[in-house]
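Purpose: get a first structural picture of the assembly so the mutagenesis plan has something to point at.
Setup: two entries, given in the order below. No constraints added.
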Amino acid sequence: EAGVVQSPRYKIIEKKQPVAFWCNPISGHNTLYWYLQNLGQGPELLIRYENEEAVDDSQLPKDRFSAERLKGVDSTLKIQPAELGDSAVYLCASSSGGSRNEQFFGPGTRLTVL
Amino acid sequence: AQSVTQLGSHVSVSEGALVLLRCNYSSSVPPYLFWYVQYPNQGLQLLLKYTSAATLVKGINGFEAEFKKSETSFHLTKPSAHMSDAAEYFCAVGTGAGSYQLTFGKGTKLSVIP
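Result (structure tokens, whole complex):
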């Protein structure tokens, strides 16, 4: 079974530029999460989707961040414009829901904003 | 609200020695508790989880953790460290029935000395 796929793995951009991250969850997983992981910190939830609906986006900075999950499968997280402080690892995770709701994480996208 | 405190951002042990990584949690509801491991440039992998069944939980790679409600702790142990155990370990508390909304600690980096 393929795991959670994320691309790109690494991205370097200059500040004020836009950037997008893509995530393909494990097949059949209805719940998808985007996390932000700063250096030396644990992941922090940005947004959670149940199918195509964003059910928890309270931690997503909506002035510059946006996300979508069209058709309830893969998802894109966008930052526009990027700031220096956005340099971090962006992790995607998915789970099947129900009582056995383990989250499976992708390898992440490491963003560097210069 | 829930929170997780991991004591010690960096722990070093000799190969073959006991591994003890400490985690204390705060939760307003009965918690679900998790330990994840993260190897360099990889996503998080679930080691073990406590979901109100047995208080002593066995996980992968010889790790186990004991839930102690009176101490609000969920410390991770392994009797004998191996070089391959060198990684960063994250404790997390989950809430939200069926969704396991995770709050992570800041992580403990484990070094194993040959």
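Chain A touches chain B through 27 residues (CB under 8 Å).
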